[in-house]
Amino acid sequence: MLTNIRRYFIKSRFKRHDLKIIEGISFSSTKAILDTYVSEGWELGYQFSSAGSLASQGECIVRRGQSSLTFAHSETSQGSITGPTRIINDIAKQYKLPVLPFPS
Questions:
Q1: Sign of the alpha-carbon torsion through 53, 34, 15, 101
Q2: d(Cα 92, Cα 70) in Å, to the nearest integer?
Q3: Which residue has the higher pLDDT, 27 or 17?
Q4: Whole-model pTM?
Q5: Other Cβ atoms closer than 10 A to 17
Q6: How far apart are CA 26 and CA 91, in angstroms?
Q7: Domain map of the chain by residue range?
Q8: Is the dihedral of CA 90, 94, 98, 102 positive or negative?
Q9: Are strands 59-64 and 19-25 parallel, antiparallel or unpaired?
Q10: Alpha-carbon distance 70 to 99, whole Å?
Q11: Per residue in 30-63, pLDDT tens?
């Protein structure tokens, strides 16, 4: 019951904020995409000292203007990237990755 309620709220948040997610990415691919965006001028969130934060903390946020991308990875699962639909669709097209409307 609680799982269904939680899933509903996550779906509604993704829809309300026009977010998409890419899941099932290897750590090396996630890190390569993160490094590419940082080199293109995206700024690391204040709590992350470097792109190496993805390995040590399991999550890293980069921002540019009003947009932000969340890169996440854990040892037990594959990596994911969450962000605005427009940007996530561009990443998916460039790296040939599937886009999901909400987390699975």
A1: negative
A2: 15
A3: 17
A4: 0.83
A5: 10
A6: 15
A7: 2-95
A8: negative
A9: unpaired
A10: 14
A11: 889 988 998 999 998 766 555 555 656 678 889 9
Least confident of 67-71, 72-76, 85-89, 93-97: 72-76
27-36 — which CB contacts under 8 Å span 24+ positions?
27/54, 27/55, 27/73, 27/79, 29/79, 29/95, 30/54, 30/71, 30/73, 30/79, 30/80, 30/81, 31/55, 33/71, 33/81, 33/91, 33/95, 34/60, 34/62, 34/71
Structure tokens at 45: 């969130």
Only one residue has tokens 């977010």, namely 19
If residue 72 lies in a helix (H) or strand (E), which one and from where to where? strand 67-72
Which one, of 98, 104, 41, 38, lies nearest residue 71 by Cα? 38
pLDDT tens profile 67-78: 999 998 877 668
Q: How high is the pLDDT of residue 11?
A: 87
State which amino acid sits at residue 8: Y
